[in-house]
Amino acid sequence: MCVDGAADMGKSSARTHGQENERRIKANNREYNAQFRYANNYIKTSKYSIITFLPLNLLEQFQRLANFYFLCLLVLQLIPAISSLTPITTAIPLIGVLALTAVKDAYDDFQRHQNDSQVNHRRAKTLRNGKLVEEKWASVQVGDVIRLENDQFVAADILLLSSSEPNGLCYIETAELDGETNLKCRQCLLETAAMGQDDAQLGAFDGEIVCETPNNLLNKFDGTLSWREQHFSLDNDKILLRGCVLRNTSWCYGVVVFAGKDTKLMQNSGKTKFKRTSIDRLLNFLIIGIVLFLLSMCVFCTVACGVWEWLVGRYFQAYLPWDTLVPAEPASGAIVIALLVFFSYAIVMNTVVPISLYVSVEVIRFAQSFLINWDEKMYYEKSGTAAKARTTTLNEELGQIQYIFSDKTGTLTQNIMTFNKCSIAGVCYGDVIDENTGEIMEVTDRGKRRSKGTGGAALGATGPAGATVAVTATPGANGARTRLLETEHEQGRSTPGATPHSTEPLDFSDNPEYEPEFKFFDSKLLKAVKQGDRHVFDFFRLLALCHTVMPDQKNGRLEYQAQSPDESALVSAARNFGFVFRERSPNTITIEVMGKTEVYELLCILDFNNVRKRMSVILKKDGEIRLYTKGADNVIYDRLKRSNQEEVKSKTQEHLNKFAGEGLRTLALAWRPLEERGFAEWKRRHQAAALAIHDRDERLDAIYEEIETDLILLGVTAIEDKLQDGVPETIANLSMAGMKIWVLTGDKQETAINIGYSCQLLTDDMAEVFVIDGAAHDDVDRQLAKCRDSIRVVNTFLPHGSSEAKSSSVETANGGGSVSRPSPGRSANVKLNAPAVSVVTFSNEYVTAGGPYSADAHEHNADDSNGFAIVVNGHSLVHCLHPKLEEKFLDVVLQCRSVICCRVTPLQKAMVVELIKKSRKAVTLAIGDGANDVSMIKAAHIGVGISGQEGMQAVLASDYSIAQFRFLQRLLLVHGRWSYYRMCKFLRYFFYKNFAFTVCHFWFAMFCGFSAQTVFDEMFISVYNLFYTSLPVLALGVFEQDVSDATSLQFPKLYAPGHTSQLFNKTEFIKSTLHGCFTSLVLFLIPYGTYKDGLAPDGKILSDHMLLGSVVATILIIDNTTQIALDTTYWTVFNHVTIWGSLVSYFVLDYFYNYVIGGPYVGSLTVALTQATFWFTAVLTMMILMVPVVSWRLACSRRRPTLAERLRARTRWRRAAAAPAPRTPSARRARRSVRSGYAFAHQEGFGRLITSGKIMRRIPHADAALSALASLPGKFHPRSSTPPPSPPSPPSPRAPKQDLDSVDL
């Protein structure tokens, strides 16, 4: 269950819900309930209506500083006395920006309206005057009694009244809430269950419900029902939440408790926040600086104008008369003119803050979003789902992610468990051995071979049914590997060479109860079963007998309802190997062993709990009493019989370490014979303890301890909690790119740790994995202090970042080859030099003695942590997030390479994200798949939803949606990095060209008496950013690439510049503006010096204003074209057309405007182009401008080349050679581990229910199969032996993952 702190947070949020302290509801009484004004079931996530759209949208848009600035500018331009430009120059771009943004906002809101309408128009059957009527969901109100049928969504949060199942049970799927597809059980009160589906009785139901106020706690509900002068306690097991789907239940009735925005689903949706990128925030700051720069230029021109008019201008009034509103007195007249000139220059030089910047940014982002949507490499064929950018404003932020917060269930994992390997009597089964080389192969789900060794070579072929095998081949260690195989053979491993192992899955079709989707590849185990091996038979008998699974017959096929996915996978494995669990009663268990029926008397179930970490059954057959037990290996080993088992224990421990090293979930199996007299005495004391009023649990545990001793070890199982394809590689690449990955999950601690090892967030090479699980504030404080001391000791003896670690070649330092694990020498150093630190795990792999670290190992060790990881429990996290411990918590976790928070609530997930955002000022990304991830997704800078079978709540709340976690690396390392790179390059060039254009007016002011006369034609000013320079820079922002997508994935370090905003920041902005100012100075002074007092060869005067303006404008366009050509790295047809086309369009449009329309500058450019003076001036100016730029870039690329420049150079040099293979970290490392691989998602109480018989629909001997579990909060999965419609590739023994406590937050 959830921690007290989380409950307190929920209570606090509940208190804030208006003035409501408790909720009172009368069923079927709308008049009574109406007085409380409870929310109806209408859902509204849209922002606008047709009437409010225009005013609200304009109000929002003018809250942007730039839009408001241009609105003020437009107003000034409407005043003739101060404006030297037509208002059209500002009005058209401003209206364009507002219209474009409004259309985008309208489209987004229209999508929200459609989603709302779809939900609100779903149909629900509601009781009205004792009769069922169909109504829209939106019409349902609190207190209504509604009927649900199988496979229907629950319309609101309802109190279950009756159902079609025995004892008032019903089954629901909560994928929309928590991303889990396994079934969960709910049970109504037996008193209300008696009403069945009698509409008259249900319509007359007048119970009064008093319950808690709306809150966001998915697994908590407190209330009472008063009916027929009786009071009944209500809890979460009697509530069906909106968003759930009714499964395996024909019908049920319930009374609405919370509706609409008060439902727990909507309460967990969080508040939608307006998200802006860091570049947006920087631009807002820079715009303020640019405006101040503009004002300073205007002030300078104002003062200079006043001085000029007072000293010079008053004497030239005959030629330059003052306006009528200017006083005739020289001093006051000069002041008035200067003040008017201030506003005139503000208008003339307003293009230094061009509104076209915002238009271009929106267009680029919009186009980049389509590139994401159209990326076929992020299309998931199995579900037909493509990646989708649900927002168009955050693309470049994808290139600056520093922290990734991920859910586990459904995000990293597939919700599938498979029986992978096992060890029986000291012999390991499950490894597939290559018949030619004798090396271990690994079966994977992807269509390629994968080496288990980190340096393994990809060798190639695909197995049947989509399964593939990969050969372990570690260069330089063949002899060591051979010795290892020989040693393991001697220790009992399946022989590599004795019997060749086929890469095809075994054929179980001779078993009539086999499951077609079950796959196992090691024929040794099947052969041992067929040969009747005693140990193997005992092993599978235990799997078929020691569990709480319920059997059922559906459509003539045997199905299982398993309370945990682990049990489902184990019972399924036993079934396929011929040990079929058939039926159970409160007193018997019936199994079928190789076609022969065996009936066991069930004497007792010693139930599982998180403290015992084991469960046992005591069975009797043919007068022999046996205890079978399974549990965590360390717990079972402590209870083994001391004699005659040392060899088996040793070999099994070796296999346990191997399985744990491969990230598999392990359980140890053992048994012992019992004497009847001794058992009878123990049973008497057990019954006394079970009936005890005080200390019942402690007494039962003590009784269990007595009998669970002197066990005989049978073996261990290894179950794979299947990760989504490519998860380890994705995490490895993202980590190498410098991103910190935190897993925030509701699962229990063992499960979360196990998955951490599977996906390589945790490794056996880490110096230490800390666990923070203190229940009290002082305990957590003490644990954090101990962790900090350990880190300090290790950092003292193993200083961070050696000099060698920083020197590596470009091919290896950034992921060019396969990933090397950190050298075992690292752990050894910790052990030798820092004995005070508890080093939990060590690698036991073979390495060349004295060999240096690989470049990849250096890279890994040079990370900004020293190989620590931390696991934090939810109840401890409450204290960690308290202001008193916040700093200490941050001090520890920020030094850890990996962080896993387990048993956390949705609210805690969001709080952790907010903590990092606030303390580190880091860019965060949250990724999840269920409604319990929505708060986290909305809290992060970027929210990513996993779309697929797990529900759509996370997707609807997200900014980007992808179908598989592995696509995240392409979204970030390719699209994110490209978007950031393109946007930065675009902004640098944009500010450069606009300063080069605008500041020309400032230099000209010194030669025109500061009269606000423009250098350029008004039409040129209006269309400079619209036609002449807009398309080339847009093409740059949409299509530019420094390296290819394959190279971006192969070298994750290319992502690093985004973390520190290297490509665009205040320094880069200042460089661009200074470059632009220098360009404007050269552009103006050289033509001015050339044409001042200039004469043509025929004696015509060249020194006129219009000719000068045309020359400067033409050279400016040539300079812009040359500059963007130098900036363009990746040339496409669009780049060529826009760059060279813009240059041509300048001349075409100038001639069209001046000759066809009759512009004032007609003939000026023609005259200039016919003179040699112009060409000389243009060449000279371009040389002065371009030579420094080219020289600087060449010098930087030679002296301090970036990684991208080095990769491009390497590509050019090796164009004829084959490209290196992309970096592919192995999915699972071949390593030994001394940690336990135990993880078991199970819950206490089911054994007691089974033996009581309360959950049985019909008891055999009425000889029928059992079918339903109930009465205790839990989760059940219907297991079918028929193949699913679209099984994964390869098909596997599937048990949709149901981490029992993952939603008991």
Automatic annotation (TrEMBL):
Residues 955-1201 form the P-type ATPase C-terminal domain. Residues 493-502 have a biased composition (Polar residues). It is an enzyme of class 7 (translocase). It catalyses: a 1,2-diacyl-sn-glycero-3-phosphocholine(out) + ATP + H2O = a 1,2-diacyl-sn-glycero-3-phosphocholine(in) + ADP + phosphate + H(+); ATP + H2O + phospholipidSide 1 = ADP + phosphate + phospholipidSide 2. The active site is at residue 407. InterPro entries: ATPase_P-typ_cyto_dom_N (IPR023299), ATPase_P-typ_P_site (IPR018303), ATPase_P-typ_TM_dom_sf (IPR023298), ATPase_P-typ_transduc_dom_A_sf (IPR008250), HAD-like_sf (IPR036412), HAD_sf (IPR023214), P-type_ATPase_IV (IPR006539), P-type_ATPase_N (IPR032631). Residues 1-23, 446-471, 487-509, 801-827, 1215-1235, 1270-1305 are annotated as: Disordered. One of its GO terms (biological process) is phospholipid translocation. It is found in: Apical cell membrane; Cell membrane; Cell projection; Endoplasmic reticulum. ATP binds at residues 407-409, 567, 608, 630, 665, 745-747, 903, 909, 932-933. Belongs to the cation transport ATPase (P-type) (TC 3.A.3) family. Type IV subfamily. This is Phospholipid-transporting ATPase. It comes from Pararge aegeria aegeria. The gene is jg12501.
